[in-house]
Amino acid sequence: MTLPFATPRSLAVILVAAAVSAIAGCGGDPAPITSASSKYEVADGDSPSTETLEFPDNSRSAAPNATFEPAAAARPDAARPAPGTAPQRPPATPPPGASGPASDKPDDLMAYVAELATREPTGVSQEEVIADYLRTQDELVAICSRVFAMETTPALKFAAAESKVQSLIRMSQVGNAAAPKQLDEFVVALNASPDEALQNLGFKVGFSNRMQALQSGQDVDPLTVIDDLNHLIATEAKDEELLGIGHSIAAILEQTGHLEQAVQAFRLLAETFKGSDDERLRAEASNLTEQAQLLDSDITTMLSAVLEAKEGAGPPFVTAAEGLLQSEGAGFVTLGFFQQFAPTLELAAPEVAGKIYAAIGAAFKENPNQDLAKLAAQIAASYEIRASLTGKPFAVEGTTLDGQVLDWSQYQGKPVLVVFWTTQIEASLLEMPNIRENYERFHEHGFEVVGINLDTDIQSLRRFLAIQQLPWPTVLGSDPETRQSALAKKYGVVSIPFMVLVGEDGNVLAANLRGDQLSENLAKLFPAAAAPLPPAKAEDDKAQPAASADATSGRSNGAAEKPPAEPVPSATPSPDAGDGAQG
Q: Under 8 Å CB-to-CB from 66, ≥6 apart: which residues?
């Protein structure tokens, strides 16, 4: 008889995956925008949110997955019900007429456990369904406890123990208050068992609990987590599952402020996998070494000081950055880290940003890894394009959403704001009220706006614009098949929203504008229109919220506020962060 129970190895992944589930995608981008909190948000975009455009994947190394989960049927959270839905389990149903075990023999009891594990809960209401589900889990725990106490084979005893653990975890997840204590008591029994496999199971359950406690802010000694990682390295296969688990452990330590132990964890993993027979794992060992070096350098603290405009913060940050970029073994992880925050630095400290881009271009110029050298060159070159836009001619070519070819000549003699944007990036949408406010104030004096939308889901864009009714034309800026933009490449656009103010003569007046920088530049072009409104007129405008941008943004009339600096990235970025939609 083959019973559908996970092996000790797979349960390690199950338990740790449950403990570190919040890490998946960490330091990454925000979730796709919904219509819940802003009129400038799209309800159902399919593209992942990202602040930075990307080069094709073949120019970067792959990052290790944060967790490696087995199929849903084996996960301990597979039965956890979402709000308003029934608990989810494997779709199989027990044989008709099954009403209990065939006998009290261990084999028959565990066969019945297998049936119960696939049983669908019943009930009219959500509460009834959950109550029935908990009764099933209670029955599973009781039967597994019986088998565990019997004189039987090690395999059946282990299967009973593992099934009991899974049921107690599921009960905890649906709110059974007694299940966590039962699980803790069972872990003590497992750790005291003379059977090595049961001891190992007890360790994994305890380790999972410690990681969950650490994530939730409870007081957990980080040194015990390092001991746990050492135990896993000593007892588990040296494969991608262990690498993913270890990477998540290090990330949790970093996110909870245990930086010294996070560095130690990264270096332990790097040492473990540097001699692997698997070329991919050896490459990841190098990446882990880079992550440890970045974290140990305290570069993010120095970056925060620069973004906060602290006096004297620029020179030491640039020196540290140059040292990291030129260090032995610097590769995609190091480059990805500096690439990730550089667009934010362009807004907050342009002079410092210029030195970082120059350091990127110089550090990898002669690198034997051609993909790495190419990517670094692209990053530096795109910055040079952006930095040199001011004073040069700027033109928009393309087709609008309604299929018409944009006639750029109609904008001659008028100041025009060209906005690269997408419905899938929060910062892009948050800038929309500011743009509309300035458009409504200065349009009658000749000010125009042209949007270059970089969405690849045109239907989603249409739905967004049907709601928003933007008063300016929207040019399609991305090829849906290649996901690349010729205009973005031409003008070095890597981070959006990217706004360019073009003067009456067709040359760029200012580039990479954000927030109140737009109204400040327009005030210089239209000084009369920028003057304070008469009290009566101001009161009239205030009484018409439907036509005002502050109905959607919460901002006051007048110059828009400059948005805060983008968050400082983690010192362990995903190398997937790119520097353009082109390659």
A: 20, 23, 24, 25, 26, 244, 247, 248, 251
**Diameter over CA atoms, the chain:** 93
As a whole number of angstroms, the distance between CA 130 and CA 43 comes to: 31
Cβ-based neighbours of 258, under 8 Å, separated by 6 or more: 222, 225
Put the strands of the sheet holding 448-453 in their side by side order: 474-476, 448-453, 416-421, 498-502, 508-511
User: Quick check: helix, strand or coil at residue 318?
Assistant: helix
Structure tokens at 390: 């001011």
Structure tokens at 28: 């990454």
Q: Both tokens of residue 21?
A: 């589930």
- Relative to beta strand 416-421, strand 498-502 is antiparallel
**CA 246 to CA 268: how far, in whole Å?**
9
Residues 6+ apart with CB under 8 A from 145: 160, 164
- The DSSP output letter for 409 is G
pTM (2 decimals)?
0.66
Q: DSSP readout, 139-163? A: HHHHHHHHHHHSS--HHHHHHHHHH
Hunting for tokens 């190992």 — which residue is that? 200
What is the C-alpha radius of gyration for the chain, rounded to an integer number of angstroms?
29
pLDDT per residue as tens digits for the range 534-565: 554 444 444 443 333 333 333 333 333 444 43
Q: Please state, in angstroms and rounded to a whole number, the distance separating the CA atoms of residues 521 and 512.
A: 12
